[in-house]
């Protein structure tokens, strides 16, 4: 089996889960493998940049199942560097899909994101909800989905797509924006008020523990329908006020919020209708209360504080004027 992006946050958990199931796993990633992942039984590393088609073909050869997780996972990075985001997510995914076709891979599972829906028009959202991404990240993930689905229809690529809602668990990068669960815990474990932007009652999310997400991905590989898209969430709606309460209960000390409601940009409900996933016989096992307790234990007292803020918009750049030589 291959896991692209297996050196990253979700990928590391998936590689661990597959190794525990006794699978032989090749991690395709342009980054170094963390030592604990490299030491797992049956795990090897094939270094490749998926923007390069030759490297992609070589790295995927011999795979029967491919989990494609590599890419940019940050909306903020996509706003700052949209071409970089597009290359990683759209071009990289096209390369993986085409390589899987050429190499006769039997199953490709693509980890997409609920970001492709854009601003929700209804809640909970089923997979047929319209897709109008408002961030370049959403557009590049959707482009990856559309490319793979078109390869399924035009050439029989055996692909299944999962759209993850908000993932949390050990190993998240605190310098990346998003991921309210670990951010809330990090501020609170430092005995500081938790900064929140928006309306803490109207801003509701669907949190899925990373180990449940990996279980769902394995289910898609085993039983997902070719060409089908599945929401990957808990199906449970939690407001940011409820999350703060749960953080307080998990740590035995009430959480304080420092609310900035000057921007209501993402104060909406982002909750999955998970009935299609449930019909495959999978439902998440880790309740938020348990997940918070175990994550608080892993983070320990005074963990590193989150540093990034979510950015949805940037100043329009100065108009660029090229000289003839530079334009060539
Ligand atoms: N973390 C989340 O909250 C979340 C939510 C929904 C969907 N997703 C999706 O899950 C996937 C994994 O997310 P994550 O949080 O683990 O991200 P991550 O940034 O922790 O890991 C991504 C991995 O991909 C590798 N990678 C990136 N570009 C590559 C390239 N061109 N060639 C080879 N390797 C490359 C990186 O080195 C890294 O190890 C992403 O596709 C993301 O869109 C994540």
UniProtKB/TrEMBL annotation:
It holds the Pfam family Epimerase. Residues 1-233 form the NAD-dependent epimerase/dehydratase domain. InterPro entries: Epimerase_deHydtase (IPR001509), NAD(P)-bd_dom_sf (IPR036291). PANTHER family: DTDP-D-GLUCOSE 4,6-DEHYDRATASE-RELATED. Belongs to the NAD(P)-dependent epimerase/dehydratase family. This is NAD-dependent epimerase/dehydratase family protein. It comes from Streptomyces spectabilis.
């Amino acid at each position: 089996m291959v896991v692209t992006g297996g050196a990253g946050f979700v990928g590391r958990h998936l590689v661990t889960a597959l190794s525990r199931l006794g699978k032989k796993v090749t991690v395709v990633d342009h980054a170094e493998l963390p030592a604990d992942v490299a030491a797992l039984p049956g795990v090897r590393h094939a270094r490749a940049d998926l923007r390069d088609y030759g490297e992609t073909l070589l790295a995927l050869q011999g795979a029967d199942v491919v989990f494609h997780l590599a890419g940019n996972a940050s909306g903020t990075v996509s706003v700052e560097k949209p071409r970089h985001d597009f290359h990683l997510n759209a071009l990289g995914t096209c390369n993986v899909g085409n390589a899987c076709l050429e190499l006769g891979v039997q199953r490709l599972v693509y980890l997409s994101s609920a970001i492709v829906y854009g601003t929700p028009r209804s809640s909970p959202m089923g997979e047929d909800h319209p897709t109008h991404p408002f961030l370049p990240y959403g557009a590049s993930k959707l482009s990856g989905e559309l490319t793979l689905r078109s390869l399924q229809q035009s050439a029989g690529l055996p692909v299944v797509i999962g759209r993850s809602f908000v993932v949390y668990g050990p190993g998240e990068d605190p310098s990346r924006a998003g991921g309210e669960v670990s951010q809330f815990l990090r501020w609170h474990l430092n005995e500081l008020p938790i900064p929140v932007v928006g309306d803490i009652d109207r801003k509701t999310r669907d949190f899925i523990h990373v180990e449940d997400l990996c279980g769902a991905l394995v289910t898609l590989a085993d039983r997902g329908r070719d060409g089908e898209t599945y929401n990957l969430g808990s199906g449970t709606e939690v407001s940011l006020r409820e999350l703060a309460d749960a953080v307080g209960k998990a740590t035995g000390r009430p959480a304080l919020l420092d609310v900035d409601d000057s921007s209501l940009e993402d104060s909406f409900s982002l909750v999955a209708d998970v009935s299609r996933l449930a019909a495959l016989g999978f439902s998440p096992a880790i309740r938020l209360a348990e997940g918070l307790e175990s994550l608080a234990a892993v983070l320990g007292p005074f963990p590193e504080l989150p540093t990034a803020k979510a950015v949805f918009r940037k100043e329009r750049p100065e108009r660029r004027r090229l000289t003839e030589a530079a334009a060539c």
